[in-house]
Amino acid sequence: MESASGGFLSGEMPPAGPSRRRARKGLSALQRRRMLEDWAFILPQLIVFVGLTIVPFIIAIPMLFTDIAQFNDPQINWVGLHNFKAIFVDRGVQADYVPALRRTLTFVALNYTTVYIFGLSLALLMYEVGFRGGFFTVVYLPLMVSGLAVGYMAVMLFSQETGTANQLLMELNLIKKGIDIYSPGGTMFLLPLLVGWRYAGYNMAIFLSGLLSIPEETIESAVVDGASYLQRLTRIYFPQMWPSFILATTMCLIGSFAVFDELVALGALYVNPEANLLSTLFFIYGFQVERLGQGMTMAVETFLPLVFLGAALQRLQRRLQY
Q1: The pTM of the whole model exceeds 0.90
Q2: Where are the alpha helices (DSSP H) in the chain?
Q3: Domain 87-151+180-321 falls under CATH 1.10.10.60
Q4: Does 9 score more than 60 pLDDT?
């Protein structure tokens, strides 16, 4: 035992051993290796995202203040904030933007309902019945097909005169006249179903992760107490799935405003103005009517409110989760 004058009893700290020296160095070798492995997985995607999204966006910012008509425009003039004001003062731009915005918001609302009609229903089915592997693959498979191909399949199924689905429904006397996919009602009815069916597996995975995070003891206690299935849904499942609901809402907003391939297949660029949502309107301004600067500016003005809304939803998700 050390003396009181110079040992442990005098209040001095014991000599630093190997463990204390490692603690002072920071991360252990295992932690550093795991961090490097994480970066090895993240870095390729990060490079692609920065190179194809962030860098082009930064490069394009000066174009928002010009009258650039196309990428190879030899004469570009500085117009200041004119492009930003056009949505509010230019009647020609308003005549294009406002109807497209109205159609887009209608589609967002209808598409949001399909998130729960398809995604939540399938997640509950898998959770309760216990389907595995093959069923999940079949439901997720449509997401592997390109949106353009899915859109053309819908056109072939619901072409008013020759569509296979229309012919079948008329043979069964369920409808008297074929559904016209190019009509206002036909487009706005079939487009959300088309997109909702394609993303059913994706949304199912989001909701299924929320269901699997619920402690089994809580559900078993409710069953023992005699709670009905509806009571378990409203008082146990859904209250603990709020983070999944918010995540599904965020992804639905992003996906709804970004939908493009399906609209092209439905004729949005040429024969079907009812399928002309904001995403195709920006494309038309940039590459068909040669008003690239104006089209890019409208895209940014639409994008910024979605950024704030997405940030608010993410913050709410973190509060509910943690």
Answers
A1: no
A2: 18-25, 29-49, 55-60, 82-89, 91-114, 121-129, 134-140, 147-158, 164-171, 184-198, 200-212, 216-224, 229-232, 242-258, 261-265, 278-287, 292-321
A3: no
A4: no
